[in-house]
Amino acid sequence: MERTDTTHRIQVEDYDLAATVTSGQAFRWRPSGTGWESAIQGTWVRIEASEPGILTATTATPQTDWRWLEHYLQSHVRLADVIATFPPDPPLLEAVQACPGLRLLRQDPWECLAGFILSSTKQIVQIQQCIELLCERAGQRLEAPPRSSILHAFPSADSVAQLGETALRECKMGFRAPYLLNAARRVADGSLDLEALRALPTAEARDRLVGLHGVGRKIADCVLLFAYGRQDAFPADVWILKVLRHLYFPKRAPSPRRLLRFVETHFGPNAGYAQQFLFHHARVHLGSSLGKPTKPKPKPRAPAASL
């Protein structure tokens, strides 16, 4: 008889769950006691760093195979091996030391694409609000504890395409509504095959994504990094370009094009991971020095799990 469980323990090394789920790469994680809850692949899940070296996951429905969650969390990745590829420059080393255990998640491509289309010029709290309104309107009801703050799955591209622009605007999307609707229709009718992007070189996959209305290089690189694991993708918006100027060119004012050339040659094969360390460190610890209020550290702040 096949064993089913609603609780699973995942061994990890150097994994800061709280920093990872609040670092701006995924938008549906919410505090839940001493842990965090979300919906992944249509399944409600709660995770906490229950003890050193262990993440404990709980679902509302029995699971026979937990590989979907381990893949999402990228729990098999040895962070030390990633960091060993970084150039030994002081700003990046400082960011790594300030954010120990920060990880990259591996998200569903459609949800990741939709989330970053909705992220344009919005704060994270506003993005989360838009997404939850969308999920309530078009996502399937989840089996979840009654007091959960995550009660609906992320809607499929088909479901979003059927809503229409008016309904999407009612989810507080503003000018982003037609962009999301266009992307949903393209994915739903197969003219944009998100699965096919996995086999393409990064530059070609980026071009396919940038072909969508409302998707520029930054959003495309977020999808390539956070959904497809393309570590050579380095999402660069106005904020991260400001961070790069502040940390690497304090006495100069290089153009965005010059900064992108610097990114492509300086950070090595795991440039996307380096970007996440620099982005989160600047957002949490350096905000005031960059002319942006320092973001308070997330609560709950469980200690990094390590073996």
Give a structural overview.
The protein is α+β, with helices and mostly antiparallel strands and 307 residues long. The protein has three domains: 5-98, TATA-Binding Protein (2-Layer Sandwich), CATH 3.30.310; 109-226, Hypothetical protein, domain 2 (Endonuclease III, domain 1, Orthogonal Bundle), CATH 1.10.340; 238-288, Orthogonal Bundle (Endonuclease Iii, domain 2). The protein has 14 helices and five strands. It has helices at 17-21, 67-73, 79-83, 90-98, 109-118, 124-138, 157-163, 165-169, 176-188, 202-210, 217-226, 238-248, 256-266, 271-285, and strands at residues 5-11, 30-32, 35-40, 43-51, 54-63. It has a five-stranded antiparallel β-sheet with strand order 1-5-4-3-2. The longest helix is centred in the middle third of the chain and has 15 residues, at 124-138. Residues 293-307 have low confidence and may be disordered.
CATH architecture of the largest domain: Orthogonal Bundle
Going by helix content, strand content and strand pairing, the class is: alpha+beta
| Radius of gyration, taken over Cα atoms and rounded to an integer in Å | 19 Å
- The unreliable regions are 293-307
CATH superfamily membership of the largest domain, which one?
Hypothetical protein, domain 2
Q: Report the helical percentage.
A: 40-55%
Number of strands: 5
Element pattern in H and E? EHEEEEHHHHHHHHHHHHH
Amino- and carboxy-terminal Cα gap:
33 Å
CATH class of the largest domain: Mainly Alpha
Strand order of the largest sheet: 1-5-4-3-2
As for the number of domains, it is 3
Q: Approximately what portion of the residues adopt beta-strand conformation?
A: 5-15%
Question: What overall form do the CA principal axes indicate?
Answer: globular
Number of helices: 14
Provide mean pLDDT, rounded: 91
